[in-house]
């Protein structure tokens, strides 16, 4: 239990940041799933658009510090490999 006003404030801030981080990581997973479905269906235009949005989201997430920069690089490499399957 927090003993001071500042500690209670930090708890609120941390919870808010945690929720934002979950939103970003969830969006990455969802876009990856969507990209995989589009590649399997052979829809190259939609897959390209999703890949662009996914790469942008990955960059933003790494810039925020939500994911590590090496993980971001690995994810972007996975996106490129998925697009190469088309």
Share of β-strand residues: under 5%
Q: Count of helices?
A: 3
**What's the β-strand tally?**
0
Cα Rg:
17 Å
- Spatial shape: elongated
SSE pattern, N- to C-terminal: HHH
Q: How many angstroms separate the termini?
A: 54 Å
Structural class: mainly alpha
Average pLDDT score: 97
Uncertain segments are none
Helix content: over 70%
Largest sheet: none
Helix/strand layout:
Layout: H1 5-41, H2 44-64, H3 69-84
Helix pairs in contact: 1-2, 2-3
Descriptive overview:
This protein has 86 residues and is mainly alpha-helical. It has a domain at 36-86. Helix content is 86%, strand content 0%. The chain is built from three helices and no strands. The chain has helices at residues 5-41, 44-64, 69-84. Helix 2 (44-64) packs antiparallel against helix 3 (69-84). The radius of gyration is 17 Å and the shape is elongated. The mean pLDDT is 97.
Gist of the model:
The chain is an all-alpha fold and 86 residues long.
């Amino acid at each position: 239990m927090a003993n001071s006003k500042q500690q209670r404030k930090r708890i609120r801030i941390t919870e808010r940041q945690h929720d934002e981080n979950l939103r970003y990581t969830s969006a990455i997973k969802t876009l990856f799933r969507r990209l995989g479905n589009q590649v399997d269906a052979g829809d190259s235009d939609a897959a390209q658009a999703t890949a662009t949005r996914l790469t942008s989201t990955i960059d933003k997430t790494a810039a925020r510090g939500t994911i590590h920069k090496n993980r971001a690089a690995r994810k972007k490499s996975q996106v490129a490999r998925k697009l190469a399957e088309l």
